[in-house]
Fold this sequence. Notes:
The structure holds two protein chains of two kinds. By secondary structure, chain A is of the alpha/beta class. Helices cover about 40% and strands about 25% of the residues of chain A. In chain A, the strands form two sheets. In chain A, strands 5-6-7-3-8-9 form a six-stranded mixed sheet, sandwiched between helices. Chain A has a three-stranded antiparallel sheet with strand order 2-1-4, with helices on one face. Chain A is globular. In chain A, about 45% of the residues are buried. Chain B is an all-alpha fold. Chain B is built from eleven helices and no strands. Chain B has helices at about 5-20, 20-40, 45-55, 55-60, 70-75, 85-120, 125-145, 155-175, 180-185, 195-205, 220-240. In chain B, helix 7 (about 125-145) packs parallel to helix 11. Chain B is globular and about 55 Å long. The chains are: A alpha/beta, B mainly alpha. The interface between A and B is medium-sized, with 30 and 29 residues.
Amino acid sequence: MLRVTGLRKSFGPVRAVRDVSFSLARGRTTALIGENGAGKTTTLRIILGFLKPDAGAVETAAGRIGYIPDQPVFLPWLSGRSLLDLTGRSAGFGGAKWSAAVRRTGERLLFDPALLERRPGTYSAGNAKKFACLQSLAVGPDLLVVDEPFSALDPPSVRRLRDLLAEARNGGTAVLLSSHMLAEIVRTSDDFIVLRRGEIAARSDLAEFLSRFRPSGAAELESAFLDLMRA
Amino acid sequence: MPDKDIFPLTIRLTAARLEASRFTVALAAFLPAFLVFLGARDSCGTAMKFFLFFFPYVFLVAAQDMAGTEISSGALENVLFLRGVFRRYLWRKNFALAAAAGAYAAAVFVGLALWSLARGRLDPSWGLQFGLGLLAGLYYIVAAGALSYVLKGGANVVVILMAQAAALLGLLFSATSRSAFIDHLDAGKFPDLVSRLKFLGFTAVFPNLIVSPRFRSGALVAAAGLLAALVLQRVLLRRLELRKEGRA
């Protein structure tokens, strides 16, 4: 669904991403993990087309791509409903089908539909995040890129979003997520890629990793990941 | 998103933005009211002359903050603008704004022309003047658009208005010199190379001039400026990246 080959990106003297290559398959969730400045966000932003790589290529067969940013910002002059209408049209959805998808996804996310009449810029951080999830998940993306999906969400919404991400993955979506919440990564991901100083330091099937390290609790799991991130 | 879907998206987003701008809506309502007042007080011919000279500013107002805030705020980092769609959206915004401002100006022009026709005072040369005013308006949109890649908020329009104010002040000061440029402007004749170059520069800053029959040769400057600003925007867009660290 997505193939990233030899990505490189520098910002002045800072080499943010160096020779990053990986591919994502349908129906798998891959987590990008690493410390701050490891190159996760730059990699995601190149994949989404916001940044141009200095070298390398991003190829995707995905028709519909979803994106849930860490801190979503929206065009300030549109109501939530107008923004969703435009999203539906852009994704080729008809009126009734789109309305049903929005209603269904919104209910699952515990998103108050009354908020749609307001501009998303006036939402709380949590509701803005839910709205960004709604905008991306309702289109049924082939590829879903998620940056810190659970930040700003309350525990019930975290659980709902976790379920929705799992359903999308089970429905064939390739999910690429970046997060610092290691426990959530273990719950939601099938594979992980560790980035360190812009390079891929490790990659593994999560189940294989867990069977190898056999962490007995959250603290041990965290230590195992930190060892990988800092080794 | 397929290319064919981007222009409708741009039209909808641009229309919603114009509707949401109180200043633009107020100006759009004020201009016809003022023209009616002017026509009633003086003549519809005077109202038409005023309109023909000033309507390119409608395009300039429409182009305020065309791209700067959208880029710097992070609002383009949305699922609507993935995989380079934001670049194509910003490019097409020139044409969407030109279409909106052009449609508005054409409606007012037709209204004034019908009014003049009813009074038996329709001047056929107004059509050409309107066309030249459209050229000046397009130049404003594309030049202000190019400026908005480096300036935030309405600063792109403010810079153009300040350049015009500076040009007018320069013109006033030139009135004290022996071979005053203001005299050449008044005569519409530029006998030497220096005065011709001054005229080209003045037209580049003040494209509304080309509406006047005396300064029609300035249309070439406006056309060249329009082309140059379009090329500049293309270059800026090709290089444009949405960087998180650059956010406002």
